[in-house]
């Protein structure tokens, strides 16, 4: 007679090893990423516990939470044991984390480096599967007036018109602008179109007495700065 290995459910684990009980007794920082996701999904499947299923999902994105945040409901539902409700729970939790990072940066901080500009818009642009173009409006003290979305495009690019840049800049009384867009491909290097657009906007800004301080390209967790590279 063929023998089958008995699969232990989380409920049969030692209490200290159960994610919920572990969080209560040891605090949230004691839990692994897989254990936190296991709490969200509640149960696994007939072959895996919730923690094991969560580990497999994380392994599929090389244990990178940024990449996990790029998965949609259909991607997650490909895993046995993940239905629409569980997929939505995971996506909602990751979106809350992204928004928390976004709001942790004060709107009125001074931007004096490319790294600060990157940190301000990284939570918005890093996980997107398509390109978006954003602006950071600054006053004469280089303090942030506003973050402003300009356009949304496809995987390979987005359309940007100079009027779309400078009209809201004038309306917000901006003294200078930092341009920013993302590359979903993960390649942070600028295209020829990026270079041409940056030069064009720099010249247009000069005529309006609005300085283009930088153009930041965000590619996952890295970035390219036109100012740092000497193009501005």
Overview of the molecule:
- There is one protein chain.
- This protein has 232 residues and is an alpha+beta fold.
- It has two domains: 10-102; 108-225, Cytidine Deaminase, domain 2 (3-Layer(aba) Sandwich).
- Helix content is 41%, strand content 16%.
- It is built from nine helices and five strands; from the N terminus they run αααααααββαβαββ.
- A five-stranded mixed β-sheet has the order 2-1-3-4-5, sandwiched between helices.
- Helix 9 links the parallel strand 3 (176-182) and strand 4.
- The longest helix is centred in the middle third of the chain and has 20 residues, at 84-103.
- Residues 1-6 have low confidence and may be disordered.
Rg, rounded, reads 23 Å
Q: Main β-sheet: number of strands, strand sense, barrel status?
A: 5 strands, mixed
What is the CATH level 1 assignment of the largest domain?
Alpha Beta
Structural class category = alpha+beta
Oligomer: single chain
Q: What is the average of the pLDDT values?
A: 88
* Percent helix range: 40-55%
Number of domains: 2
Major sheet: arrangement of strands: 2-1-3-4-5
């Amino acid at each position: 007679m063929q023998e089958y290995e008995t699969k232990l459910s989380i409920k049969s684990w030692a209490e200290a090893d159960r994610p919920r009980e572990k969080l209560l007794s040891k605090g949230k920082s004691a839990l692994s990423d897989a254990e936190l996701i296991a709490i969200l999904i509640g149960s696994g499947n007939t072959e895996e516990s919730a923690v094991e299923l969560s580990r497999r999902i994380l392994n599929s994105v090389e244990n990178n939470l940024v990449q996990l945040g790029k998965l949609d409901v259909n991607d997650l539902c490909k895993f046995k044991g993940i239905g629409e409700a569980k997929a939505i729970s995971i996506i909602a939790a990751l979106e809350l984390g992204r928004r928390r990072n976004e709001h942790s940066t004060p709107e009125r901080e001074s931007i004096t480096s490319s790294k600060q500009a990157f940190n301000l818009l990284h939570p918005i642009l890093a996980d997107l599967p398509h390109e978006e173009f954003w602006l950071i409006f600054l006053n004469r003290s280089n303090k942030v007036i506003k973050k402003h979305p300009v356009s949304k495009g496809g995987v390979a690019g987005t359309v940007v018109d100079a009027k779309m840049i400078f009209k809201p800049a004038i309306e917000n009384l901006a003294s200078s602008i930092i341009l920013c867009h993302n590359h979903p491909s993960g390649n942070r290097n600028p295209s020829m179109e990026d270079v041409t657009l940056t030069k064009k906007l720099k010249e247009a800004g000069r005529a309006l007495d609005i300085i283009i301080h930088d153009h930041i390209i965000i590619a996952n967790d890295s970035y390219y700065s036109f100012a740092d590279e000497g193009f501005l």
